[in-house]
Amino acid sequence: MSWPRAPATTTGTDRPVSGGETTPAADPVAPVAPGQKRLILVDGSGYIFRAYHALPPMTRPDGIHVNAVFGFTQMLSQFLARNSATHIAVVFDTARTTFRNDFYPDYKAHRPEPPPELVPQFALIREATEALGVCQAELSGFEADDLIAAYAKAFVAEGGTVAIVSSDKDLMQLVRPGVEMLDPIKQKPIREPEVFEKFGVTPDKVVEVQALAGDSTDNVPGVPGIGIKTAAQLINEYGDLENLLANTAKIKQPKRREALEQNAEKARISRRLVMLDADAPLPCPIQKMEVRPPSPAVLEKFLRENGFRSLLARLGLGDASAVVRNTPRPAPADAPEPTPPPGAAAFGPYETVTTIDALRSWIAEARSAGVIGFDTETDSLDALKAQLVGLSMAVAPGRACYVPLRHEGSGDLMGSGTPEQIDHDQAMAELKPLLEDPSVLKVLHNAKYDLEVLSRAGNGGIAVAPIDDTMLMSYALRAGAHGHGMDELALKHLGHTPITFDSVTGTGRNRISFARVALDKATAYAAEDADVTLRLWHVFKPELRTARALTLYEQVERRMVAVLRDMEIAGIRIDAGELARIGEDFTGKLALYEKQIHELAGRPFNVGSPKQLGEILFDEMKLPGGKRSKLTGAWGTDASVLEELAQQQIPLARRVLDWRQIQKLKSTYVDALAQRLDGNSRVHTDFAMAVTSTGRLSSTEPNLQNIPVRTEEGQRIRRAFVADPGHVLMAADYSQIELRILAHVADVPALKEAFATGQDIHSRTASDIFRIPPDKVDKEARRRAKTINFGIIYGMSAFGLAARLGIGPGEARGIIDAYFAQYPGIRNCMEKLKEDARTTGYVLTPFGRKLWIADIASKDPVRRGGAERAAINAPFQGGAAEVIKRAMVRLPRALRDANLSARMLLQVHDELVFEVPEAEVEATAALVRQIMENVAALSVPLAVEVGHGASWAEAH
Prior knowledge:
Blueprint: E1 9-10, E2 16-17, E3 38-43, H1 44-54, H2 67-82, E4 87-91, H3 100-103, H4 121-131, E5 135-137, H5 144-157, E6 161-165, E7 179-183, E8 188-190, H6 192-199, H7 206-213, H8 228-238, H9 241-246, H10 254-262, H11 264-274, H12 296-305, H13 309-314, E9 351-352, H14 356-369, E10 371-378, E11 388-396, E12 399-404, H15 424-435, E13 441-444, H16 447-454, E14 467-469, H17 470-478, H18 486-494, H19 501-505, H20 519-546, H21 550-570, E15 572-574, H22 576-601, H23 610-620, H24 639-647, H25 651-676, E16 682-683, E17 686-688, E18 698-700, H26 712-719, E19 721-722, E20 727-734, H27 737-746, H28 749-756, H29 761-770, H30 779-793, H31 798-805, H32 809-822, H33 824-840, E21 842-844, E22 850-852, H34 861-897, E23 903-908, E24 911-917, H35 921-933, E25 944-949
Parallel strand pairs: 3-4, 3-6, 4-5, 6-7, 9-12, 10-13, 13-14
Antiparallel strand pairs: 1-2, 7-8, 10-11, 11-12, 15-16, 15-19, 17-18, 20-24, 20-25, 21-22, 23-24
């Protein structure tokens, strides 16, 4: 039986789930009818290896590893609780050597020895089976599959039915009336249609197909050049292997005919290897397999001895806390404390995979592992343009490989010619089933990039799933504490400094593309990435639970990967003609502003030069307030300096600010957007998922989140963002969400009442703090209230408010005092946030996410003050970020379920932008509003404003 997407989260139904939507537990094997006999045969080896590779290292107090024991016990106990039968048994393998090795010594010869930490657990797993009251069967010289075949034959002969719990393809030859398989991952039966879909033949012909196709996993030779599809065609035409070999002269393809004739004996040997022995002895009599309840005393003793407290509680056995004394504090799922991450394994040497047989062997090993580290190497940082150069995977710490696909001649191992490597399309065809296999967890770092690259790989692309992302795991645990790049995390958590990209490709003019890196260096670098990723997963996965960050990661951050991948691939349409007209207007305006600036300065100069501008302002015009840089000696002329001069009615400063704004908009958006248009006039931004300290997304290449909303120039740029013909752009914007979260967190009755009754929050604030009757609040009072409402969230000081309102610091301090006097809960909340940050190093969002505050303990008062302001703002901005993310992960599915064709294209902080068919505007708007307003339960209502139009500007 295969381990579910590992390691799994348990829902209220106690069914492991991971990597997608929570699925309710099911009873895959129907209840037994009166008078009917049913035997369930569990493939024990599948359970063992899935459990071992799925769970992090765990040890008992005596140092014995028990992660596989815990996983096996949990899975089997859950299976027993959900399925009914009259007879049940777990069937085990005993040793690597069987009767097959007598006539073919190389059978399974290349399979690695089991990990040393797993070997001592085999005996404990058999104890677990006995403690659960389940019969176990094993026999020296025979494989578990042979015993399963023999028991199935015998039980059906007695009039019963059999369910084989396994997804092992070798067992599919046993499917027939009365015998079916149960896929433990998909929780679906495997009957004749599923077998035919897998092999292209009925179950009774499976061994004939396997004899021809062979199996690199088990070293079954088969006939070179013949795969499953071809083998199925031949068997369907000729009936069986012997008839095919007797009629090779009729085969028209010369190479195929020659291969069959030259490898006939290998095919016959292969058939003997894959044919299960249904006449094998039965080591455990069938009558002993009758279902019986476990002995509570025996089971409780076993669980206590191994420290399995969560299973004691789940099975209702005694006091779960009274386990063996001195048991270490439990970690994931209340299992025994995990040992440190696998650090003993060396980082390399790694294997370079250059043949299809070697790749198939690694794929088989990956399937057996159940959890793999994975990474791609490409020729570009732009995922939508990058070509796949190679890929790497790790099946265990220290056990990793690199598969070159598009390398060119260069370096020590490669010489001047193209190196030996697997054809790209052939490799993708082999890898696609693995990368899309729901029973194998793919662990990546910054998975969104790799998923976008692989979505264009091979024939029709590869939809990698299920996944874990170590970058997002780290981000869910420690947003704001440090960066989340692989190199930094490897050093911090593994004590290892990875090979740098510069060290293998060079720098500057001497840099070469990764495709030209020598294979030995490429392998060391790329395989190490996969290895490090897998090791980081072993560190982070259990920590997510203990840090109470598992739900945030699994239900929000990880689900965002696929959402953002689709958004980035979709892009948004640009009206190139309108963009060109905007560029021309901006160019004209810049020329006009430059002329006016020169007139105000009294002479021409380079307006874009801060140095020359400083000389004009402070040397020639002798304006007050100038400060020179200690490093360069040049006058400072940043925006704050110019804003201060502009408030002093210096026309030159104001006009330079105007010039800079237009120049920035032109270079950052007009010019950049024109350069980034694809062949369909769409532009594709890159949403960075783990950069901000608050959980917000950021947009780069190009940045579409900083286009001014309220300026005329910003609106003009937004008019260039348009919908496809027959569609409109729809903007859905959370209204004052950070203020709503403030009212909720600080528990401010007046603000909560205002939001609940739909009042204008700024007018209400103005009325409260300025003591103005509601009907007498004018625009100026509302403006001041709005400034302080939003300023308070960002920890604005009296000096900051004074600058914003154009008033003296004393008056600003009076306004702030009046604000806190009216809403004392806000001051108390902010003081608590600062104290929490000083005490723990982090603050919490309303949903429990930890946001770490750098410099909160700094001795520098300026840095410490900035950290305190960040501590005040982080929960509100972070809470808003989590609300919109929750909406984003729900909306695509909700739209599909409603048969609506809208696509989500952009996220701009509190706003989502969709492309919607004109005929679906009303229905889409209603659904979007319903989802967005109900994703979080706060003490104030969430409100969403929805608009639509031909352009982004018109949608507001």
